[in-house]
Amino acid sequence: MSYEDHYLIISRISKSLYLYDFYRKMKYKRILLKLSGEALMGNLQYGIDPVRLTEYAQQVKDIVDFGVEVAIVIGGGNIFRGVSGASKGMDRVQGDHMGMLATVINGLALQGALEDQGLNTRLQSAIEIDEVAEPFIRRRALRHLEKGRVVIFGGGTGNPYFTTDSAAVLRAIEIKADVILKGTRVDGIYTADPEKDASATKYDYISFKDVLEKGLKVMDTTAFTLSQENELPIIVFDMNTNGNLKKLVSGEPIGTTVNV
After folding, report:
1. How many CB atoms within 10 Å of residue 127?
2. Per-residue pLDDT reduced to its tens digit, 108-158
């Protein structure tokens, strides 16, 4: 056997041992990543920023390569918000259905970016759009995750009057995710809005009860209560800082953890 063959074998063994050691130390094996539609705008005023989309896809690839099972729920606020339309006189149900379609558009964009990184993906929609997405079927979603595919859940819950926060918690419970990771543009939960109050301080950990008593905004009430009842932890973190997602799943104290 040549020197090059020996070197190749040793390199493969070393990489396998490194991957195994990282996987063994990982705190979370299956996650639900919640992204807002606005996050995809990047520095734009509307729509989808290809640069930001690629950055997110690269972060997801980093953890999928280490064996983390990833499901994603994304909002549609960069395209249309049902609540906003209703406030201007539009029928709320119709507006919410438009918002659901916006999440599918974002899901398609994210799917393309993830596949550009070499990942296998599936887009499932709570409203039937067979030409572009699978219908949401829990057992099928679980099977995709077990096979290492990234599953993107679009269409919200499929019902009006429910936000994508509610969809994220519902899907996380259904797929038995270890945690909900809510990616935002701030690095956690603060005593006040850090962009408006310079004296605001960050929580590293806070209980569901304290969030409610202090009136802190983490998710909408329906989503938050559902997470609390099922004792499903939520971590709010800065998704725009490259590497944060990988640090989180490996157990580093990033962002703010909300738990019982």
Report:
1. 18
2. 999 999 999 999 999 999 999 999 999 999 999 999 999 999 999 999 999
C-beta separation of 192 from 186 below 8 A:
no
Q: pTM (2 decimals)? A: 0.87
For 186, the 3-state DSSP assignment is coil
Q: What is the DSSP string of 48-107?
A: --HHHHHHHHHHHHHHHTTT-EEEEEE--TTT--HHHHHHTT--HHHHHHHHHHHHHHHH
Least Cα distance to 173 among 152, 149, 142, 150 occurs for: 142
- Compute CA distances 64 → 53, 110, 240, whole Å: 17, 15, 18
Report the amino acid identity of residue 147: K
- 121 SS3 class: strand
* Residue closest to 254 by CA, chosen among 201, 163, 183: 183
List Cα–Cα distances, 76 to 96, 153, 165, 198, 247, in angstroms. 10, 12, 11, 30, 27
Q: Whats the size of the chain, residue-wise? A: 260
Cα separations in angstroms, 3 against 8, 12, 13, 17, 244 = 9, 14, 15, 21, 39
Residue 178 CA to residue 27 CA, distance in Å, equals 9
